[in-house]
């Protein structure tokens, strides 16, 4: 048994190469161990305060978010809120203030729950994960990173160091909407993120939709851009809902039946497209959309 | 494996021996004798174990004690003045926001962090600030009123 608070990225990577597992906020790892889901790893390296992992910084082509940035930071960071709003919508829904204070983006991504809230926003925003080990570093598309519930393609010695997002087109907006039975301490029944770009005449020129909790991993829905292009945002809701219901492969569990999930994920996707389009047109819809327009549980 | 570590709690440095998997809550209660912080669910659902870590609320039942090294922990004992009550404690009593009292220390820590960040929160902001705290007794209305009263009393 060993526990180390990494003082540098190199130290963390050396510990991983020697068999340690990373812990950031511990809100999945430690809570899961207490619930008996999986025993706590015998060797842990804490990565939550590494300066290299806690920055949000502009890059040549967009923005780089360190893996250990917390949800509390994401939902208040001015650039995330204004340009990558769907990610702020998602961060604002995670758990409660205490979950958001310690829970991190990297932990959410690498825990790879099919119901994770930041995953669908990251997909529609075109994110890639930067992973690093003593053997070198590489970037991974999210569709290649998540391989199943709780499974990623990262090797055991690889650390996710950052998430990279490309800069946003002009007249674009994004939103994440989740169906929830209560307003806090909840897991998505289903969730949908949308990104929409508008042409000068107000019609949609480009867009994408990704879904939470309706497949073994977060999935992006094929063909959405073609479906929306050239249409006014008001006119696409029904077609989006139908395409999304078709793409979903939900399961039944104690939270919802498969048919209920298939139906409601279409409704959530149409609402996410609507909110994203309104944001693209310059309307201020506060974060999270769920509270601003009363999408989820009501009081 | 037991490690000797230094934990700073309510401004005091304590040297304690801690197993790797040990949660912060059990160290506070059983090693340091700070029993104001409660154990409800023991898996991050109820908020009875809420403490402040560098001023921000954290569920101490699900936080590794070793991970608190080098950070400043505040418990309900650290917020209560030697003579009398903290304004949040007084408002909770005045408004009837305490019945069995088991949730109260956790509520106070969440409310304290909220008011430090946002001295005049709206009702919605108070609800969000307390959304990680369950109370089985009061029905919440009086707790919300007590936090609002503390804010308006300044
Ligand atoms: C009460 C409660 C409510 C919650 N509500 C939500 C919710 O609404 N939505 C939601 O999506 N999630 C929710 N969660 C889950 C959890 O809080 C999030 O997934 C959080 O983002 C995890 O981050 P962490 O830093 O705590 O991860 P940790 O628990 O520290 O790590 C999670 C896993 O990822 C690995 N890991 C962590 N960082 C890295 C890295 N940089 N590189 C490689 N591997 C890494 C760890 O080894 C571990 O396997 C909730 C949890 C709790 C306890
Ligand atoms: S005892 Fe920690 S949240 Fe319930
Ligand atoms: S007063 Fe009893 S749980 Fe809140």
Written description of the protein model:
- The complex is a heterodimer of chains A (299) and B (154).
- Chain A is globular, with a radius of gyration of 19 Å.
- Chain A has a domain at 172-291: Enolase-like, domain 1.
- The relative contact order of chain A is 0.13.
- The longest helix of chain A has 23 residues, at 258-280.
- Chain A contains 13 helices and 14 strands.
- Chain A has a 5-stranded antiparallel beta sheet with strand order 4-5-10-6-7.
- Chain A is of the alpha+beta class and 299 residues long.
- In chain A, α11 (237-247) packs across α12 (258-280).
- By secondary structure, chain B is of the alpha+beta class.
- Chain B folds into 2 domains: 2-79, Beta-grasp domain (Ubiquitin-like (UB roll), Roll), CATH 3.10.20; 87-153, Orthogonal Bundle (DNA polymerase, domain 1), CATH 1.10.150.
- Chain B is 36% helix and 18% strand.
- Chain B has helices at residues 24-31, 76-79, 87-95, 104-117, 123-129, 141-153, and strands at residues 2-9, 12-19, 50-53, 56-59, 72-74.
- In chain B, β1 and β2 form a beta hairpin.
- In chain B, α3 packs across α6 (141-153).
- The longest helix of chain B is centred in the last third of the chain and has 14 residues, at 104-117.
- The radius of gyration of chain B is 15 Å and the shape is globular.
- The mean pLDDT of chain B is 96.
- Chains A and B meet through β1, α2 and α6 of A and β4, α4 and α5 of B.
- The complex binds flavin-adenine dinucleotide and FE2/S2 (inorganic) cluster (2 copies).
- Flavin-adenine dinucleotide (FAD) binds next to β2, α2, α6, α7 and β10 of chain A.
- Flavin-adenine dinucleotide (FAD) binds at residues 21-29, 31, 47, 67, 93-95, 99, 102-104, 106-108, 110-111, 116-117, 159-160, 185-187 of chain A.
């Amino acid at each position: 048994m060993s526990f180390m608070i990494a003082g540098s990225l190199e130290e963390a990577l050396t510990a991983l190469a020697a068999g340690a597992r990373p812990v950031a906020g511990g809100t999945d790892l430690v809570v899961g161990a207490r619930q008996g889901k999986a025993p706590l790893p015998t060797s842990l390296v804490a990565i939550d305060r590494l300066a290299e992992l806690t920055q949000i910084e502009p890059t040549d082509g967009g923005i780089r978010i360190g893996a250990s940035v917390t949800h509390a930071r994401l939902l208040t960071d001015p650039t995330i809120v204004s340009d990558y709003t769907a990610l702020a919508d998602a961060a604002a829904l995670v758990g409660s203030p205490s979950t958001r204070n310690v829970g991190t983006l990297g932990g959410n991504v690498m825990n790879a729950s099919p119901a994770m809230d930041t995953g669908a926003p990251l997909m529609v925003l075109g994110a890639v994960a930067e992973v690093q080990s003593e053997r070198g570093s590489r970037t991974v598309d999210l569709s290649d990173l998540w391989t199943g519930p709780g499974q990623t393609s990262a090797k055991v010695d690889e650390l996710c160091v950052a998430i990279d997002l490309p800069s946003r087109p002009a007249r674009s907006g994004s939103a994440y909407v989740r169906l929830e039975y209560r307003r806090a301490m909840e897991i998505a029944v289903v969730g949908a993120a949308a990104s929409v770009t508008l042409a000068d005449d107000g019609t949609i020129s480009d867009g994408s939709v990704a879904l939470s909790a309706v497949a073994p991993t977060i999935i992006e829905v094929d063909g959405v851009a073609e479906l929306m292009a050239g249409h006014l945002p008001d006119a696409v809701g029904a077609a989006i809902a139908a395409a999304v219901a078709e793409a979903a492969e939900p399961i039944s569990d104690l939270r919802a039946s498969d048919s209920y999930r298939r139906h409601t994920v279409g409704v959530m996707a149409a609402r996410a497209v609507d909110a994203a389009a309104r944001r693209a047109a310059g309307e201020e819809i506060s974060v999270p959309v769920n509270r601003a327009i009363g999408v989820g549980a009501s009081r | 494996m037991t490690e000797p570590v230094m934990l700073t709690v309510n401004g005091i440095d304590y040297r304690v021996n801690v197993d790797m998997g040990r949660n912060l809550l059990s160290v506070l209660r059983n090693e340091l004798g700070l029993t104001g912080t409660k154990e409800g669910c023991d898996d991050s659902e109820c908020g009875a174990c809420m403490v402040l870590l560098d001023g921000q609320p954290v569920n101490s039942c699900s936080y590794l004690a070793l991970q608190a090294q080098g950070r400043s922990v505040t418990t309900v004992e650290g917020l209560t003045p030697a003579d009398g009550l903290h304004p949040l404690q007084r408002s909770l009593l005045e408004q009837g926001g305490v019945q069995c009292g088991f949730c109260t220390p956790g509520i106070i820590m969440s409310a304290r962090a909220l008011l430090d960040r946002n001295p005049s929160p709206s009702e919605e902001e108070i609800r969000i600030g307390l959304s990680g705290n369950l109370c089985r007794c009061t029905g919440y209305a009086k707790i919300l009123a007590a936090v609002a009263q503390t804010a308006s009393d300044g």
